[in-house]
Amino acid sequence: MLFPSNNPEVGQVMKTRSGVNKRSLTCSIPFRPPPLTTALRRGWPSSYHQDTMHSDTRQDMLGFGTTSYQYYPVNQWTSVQVQEWLRTICYENNIDLGNVASFAECTGPQLCAMSQSHFVETHPVYGDLFFRKFREYLDHCQRQDRHYRHHLHHQHDHHHHQHQNSPPTAPTSPYILQNPTTPTTYHELLARPQPALYQTSRVPWQDASYHQNTYPGDSSSSYTTEGTLPPTSGDFPGAGHNTMGVYQSGYSLPFEYTGNSTPSPPSASLPMAPQGYLPVGHMPTAPSPSSPSPSSLSPLPGQQDTRRDRGPKLWEFLLDLLEDPACNPAIIRWENQEERTFRLTSPHEVSLRWGQRRPNQNSLPYDYFARALRYHYKTGMLISVPERKLVYKFGSLVFQQRRRGANSLMYPESPHPDNTSGHPS
DNA sequence: GATTTGTTTCCTGATT
DNA sequence: GAATCAGGAAACAAAT
């Protein structure tokens, strides 16, 4: 039975409560939710995935296709991922696919090192557009990376505080490279030199110091890029430091890296959720919580960053839990993946974790948590599943936005088609 | 400083 | 009777 909003008596009861400061007796806690990881948030269904031009697509665990480039750090993009990304841009901008041919042999590291003029040289017509779009994608990845670091730091502190008798463990992020001993741990990636051919004297958003203080590099890496461009180090700005390192954190590597120049695409046999990542306790070192310098985050001239930086939304948090083998199915599990329904197998644990986002407060009653979930009925992010307790359903917009995260700077938010009420007043 | 956004808190009533 | 659900209302904090 739904709330009898058509019941005038009930309505009056509600109105009589207007104006009452119900929270006057509660303690106001400074609230600045530290961002939980938004890792892997780029790998969700796209509006174009069924287009026949995408031959290298796969089905994710929800049955929505996606391309593989979103699963890789940009500097591990082979020409395959570059082509995927370019096709995406073409599709989204109504550009003929033939225009991607000029970038046919480019890899991610090469794109990273290319200046705007290089893009234009490579493709006089759309080079500038490709450059801007690539730059926007990197910008997005950078923010994701920043969120991830903040999250790790917060989780590390919390974990340490909560389990002082336990042996020191890693921050509670599931997005940790499974095999830190491979040459492609993100520590090493950060030190990976860039190919020399496309060295550019100006990459305005670069800030080598961002990672220099955080991840000591390992210049002994045996990494090679696909293609013909040998890595160099000394003559690259940043002297052996990958200035694109800010986009290379391991979280976006959803599977174990084999060391091959061409990373294997995510296998369908692997679980979708944090593929290749281990849950809490397997991270070799904790990233520094230090934030990048403002200069490293400043947008390009003419580019305005309108994104909020408030940490994950509730529905993102739920997706993160579902992607985390440590949580799924322990405290949350898919009820029917194809239908996007999930069950809170331990609702109080889930709400507690949600509450732990907030400093100085480590719990949230399930009642409040459930109310927050119901709030998202109006936003279209969640859909009620009647007569099934503790079961909720993701709205389709969740996956659109999950995927759109990578392109959020390119596309303004559009209202949910099913959401006729808009944001609640 | 006003507005927007995304909760959080509190509540009543209904359902399981 | 307890747990859960539904949803109105308002407070709150951070971002814009």
UniProtKB/TrEMBL annotation:
Residues 151-180, 209-241, 257-308 are annotated as: Disordered. Residues 312-395 form the ETS domain. Gene3D superfamilies: Transcription Factor, Ets-1, Winged helix-like DNA-binding domain superfamily/Winged helix DNA-binding domain. Residues 151-163 have a biased composition (Basic residues). Keywords: DNA-binding, Nucleus. Belongs to the ETS family. This is ETS domain-containing protein.
